[in-house]
């Protein structure tokens, strides 16, 4: 078994990588659409501007049987991210551990002190990560809303029932200059959900980061939709809450819920459900090809889970975010 680094992967290597990903998803996430070739290509070759990717593949007689991608942040105080995928027929032979040790070498060389990995609850990734120095830091519930299940009259009633003193606004792509800092402040309202410790905890939204996030979505060819609740004078509007959905260009049938937040002093007034209902109404008319919306919420975020259930989202599966200190990861034999 050889492990090779893929500095600048060729088309043929990306196709083999994709074959591994498709087989692993079919085995570990049955019923969930796997990323397609274009999504895999852009994930590997177009990381966000704040990071770079290091990639490795394990080969058996020249064919890829496992792959690993390490997303290394330029800022070593932020956490790296690792994704390892081993073909079902090659598991429990130490290949996952070897790729993890290889990625750990990359983290150490870059001075990056911690790393995060996402696992699907109930899959082999959980015992693997727990046996290899990771601890669970966040548990996420994935929910799915089928657009056909929405009752349009109920949706219209929810949108009409907006709390007084607020008005809705919406935009696609990056936020206007006028609202950029307000949006960043509202995103800081989500700080209670961020991961503790290096990486997650040090992240702070500002107007530049808000725009960078929208640009990263646009660079993939996807479209970001935002609905916000405003208050205060029209000459200097303030944001009380917002919700974001991304419609992927490669697979617009399944849109992805991004952030939703209500600023603490505006909570408890049904702004969350108002914003999300307005978003659904917008997408139904603007993007009828969207058939489903997927969302992930921390499983202790009872308010957001209740809002989603009221809108018709149904529980799909649970994801677990694991974190490890680089120092605790396995090392390659010297
Ligand atoms: C998680 C995954 C990468 C593990 O790869 P692997 O090559 O089977 O892992 P290893 O052989 O190095 O296993 C190392 C240890 O992890 C634990 N482990 C791995 N799979 C396990 C399982 N199915 N049940 C219990 N323990 C398991 C064991 O302690 C194992 O040591 P042992 O075989 O000596 O008992 C692989 O199952 C996979 O590709 N899963 C789908 C992709 C995924 O979820 N990736 C995200 C996590 S990075």
TrEMBL record:
Residues 4-148 form the N-acetyltransferase domain. It comes from Thermomonospora curvata (strain ATCC 19995 / DSM 43183 / JCM 3096 / KCTC 9072 / NBRC 15933 / NCIMB 10081 / Henssen B9). This is GCN5-related N-acetyltransferase. The keyword Manganese does not apply. Keywords: Acyltransferase, Transferase. It comes from the Bacteria. InterPro entries: Acyl_CoA_acyltransferase (IPR016181), Bact_Acetyltransf (IPR050832), GNAT_dom (IPR000182). GO terms for molecular function: acyltransferase activity, transferring groups other than amino-acyl groups. Pfam families: Acetyltransf_1.
